[in-house]
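Hi there, hope your week has been kind to you so far. Thanks so much in advance, here it is.
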Amino acid sequence: MMRMSTCWPMANGARMMMSMASCMARMSMAPMASMAMKSKRASCGNARMAAWQSPCTREEVWTEAKPAPAPAKTLLETAAAAGQFTVLAKAIEAAGLTDLLSSKGSFTVFAPTDSAFSSVPQETLMDLLKPENQSKLRSVLRYHVVPGIYRAADVTSSSSLPTLEGLGLKPRVESGAAYIGNAKIVQTDIEASNGIIHVIDTVLLP
């Protein structure tokens, strides 16, 4: 059986010619439409837009990047793991500040390294670590702690930082280096679960 063309010829010769011309036009446009659809799909594959904004049908859904997990260690645990704050850790314990710096509060600690403590006369340091001088040692250490979290940019943009001791620490920038009081900040933004640590090269005295 012969298949009937989708462009069926009409009785009238002129109408037949018009119908054939129309049929041929539709047939010639079909490949172009197919190519346009392919081009549209290709451009859709390269487009980075949300699914509800895309004119194309696609299964891919863009998701936001997950934030980095919060640090698990406290300020004291972070300082102990660093290996350069052994004297500071002993002083914090002797001053009775262990619970404070392990609490859920937020603190900024300007932490002197072991090298910084070596600049303190040995006799003075040993005297401060004695139980009868706990209040003096506590005052010195509280002068290194600021309530709240101050990142490096926050420190240098502040005129004064209020410490737990009740006295202010004045930051400054000289020759491209940042200072807090008379101590140079040698490392910044060491994050902990309950605050942040900035490493300093000198023990601060109130």
